[in-house]
Amino acid sequence: MAQDRLAQDRLSTDGPRGATAGSRCSLRIPASRRLVCDILHFDRQVPTVAHDRQMELGPIAAARQAAPLRISWPIVFMKAFALMASRHPVLRQVIMPWPWPHLYQHSEQVAVLAIRRTHEQEDWLLFGRFRQPEQRALADLQAELDHYQRAPVPEAFAQQLLLARMPLPLRRLTWNLLLKYRGGKRCRRMGTFFMTTIAGYGAEIQNPPAFHTSGLTYGPLDAGGRCRVTMVYDHRLMDGHHVGGYLAELEQELLGTVRRELQQPDRQAA
Question: What are phi and psi of 145, to 5 degrees?
Fold first, then answer.
């Protein structure tokens, strides 16, 4: 009986599970949506702005198709962004409010990628972490992404499942401790930049919510190989002309270093 009541409290993508059309009921917020609610809560505390650039990515699309190993687009963009960001320390910085307002600069880059998984018959938005992506081979990064996408959810995302099931006050306290008190722990656990996309569904994200200093999203390629790439950033740390330059450098890395590695995976640049 308890399991039946729990099942009725959950929500699926089609609406409240166990509720009939026209019925009225009160349902608790399922654990699968709580992390997203938390991200939106903390996103409102960071003044982010988004700028985009139309990129000509036909050559790298062709190199990706011809590559002996399948490398997904998120990994292609992650490696290129990390290479670009490695030249700009501000992209490893974050404003920390406690114990006094100050800047913290992390020693390495940590990418966070939004990953959709199904767990206990519900859709979850979870987050994979990739340390120092600029120093790793595309094949290595792809293998880590495959693990996040295929391993049992409790194995690949144990800490996130635990956090999602905490009561709201304890969950928000945990988020605050991670985000506001220790810069090193924040960057190790939450990343120095994030990535998300729905390009696989033929759609774009205009301004993805997050609390990071910088993040990246991109849309689908059109028939001519053009792609709209968007960078969201903390306006307190940089301005639009900086981001315009970063997007231009990102396109150069995609068409240069990353394209060459796709063509010659055994000759990865150091």
Answer: -65, -40
Q: Over range 102-119, report the average pLDDT.
A: 97
Average pLDDT over residues 179-190: 95
How confident is the model at residue 267, as a pLDDT? 64
In this structure, the number of other CB atoms found within 10 A of the CB of residue 140 comes to: 14
Confidence of residue 27 (pLDDT cuts 50, 70, 90): confident
Helix pair angle (183-190, 168-180), 10° resolution: 110
Write the DSSP symbol of residue 30. Answer: P
Q: How far apart are CA 258 and CA 97, in angstroms?
A: 37
Query: Are the C-beta atoms of residues 93 and 213 closer than 8 Å to each other?
Result: yes
Reported pTM: 0.89
Distance, in Å, from the CA atom of 125 to the CA atom of 63, rounded to the nearest integer, reads 30
Token reading at 155:
């194995």
Helices (H) and strands (E) in the chain, counts: 11, 10
Q: Which structural domains are found in the chain, ordered by start? A: 48-264 (3.30.559.10)
Token pair of 183 as six digits:
């810069």
